[in-house]
Every structure is written in structure tokens, then in C-alpha cells.
Amino acid sequence: xxxxxxxxxxxxxxxxxxxxxxxxxxxxxxxxxxxxxxxxxxxxxxxxxxxxxxxxxxxxxxxxxxxxxxxxxxxxxxxxxxxxxxxx
Length: 88
Prior knowledge:
Layout: H1 3-87
């Protein structure tokens, strides 16, 4: 085998190695993309869950405030009635 044939074979080997490496990199990039998409979906779900919890907490707080306001109004009405009775 001549020097030129050996160089040609070496060039082909290098070309094949680069092609295989590029294929491996493309495959790895696809795996990373899939993993990122999965993580984004997980984060989206977690954000939705957190928003639902915040919404529930706000509704609970609103109800508690309404109950306390009702109790305060009743106490004020009772105090007004006692004041009227005392003024008689």
C-alpha cells in the first residue's frame, strides 16, 4: 500500500470518526432537550399546584375575615342594645 493510499484511508477513518461523534452529539442533544421539556412540564405543574394552594388560602382568609366581621357586628349590636337598656 502506498503512502497516498494510507493517507486516504486515514482521512476516511477521521471522516468516519467525526461523523460518528457528530451523531453521538446530536443524540445527546436530543436527550437533553427531552429532559429539559420534562423538567419544564414538572415546573409548570408545580406552579399550577402552588397557584391553586394560594387561591385556596385566599378563599379561606376571605371566609375567616367575613366570619370575624360578622362576630364584630354582632358584638357591636349587643353593646348598643346594652347601652340602650342602660339608658332607660
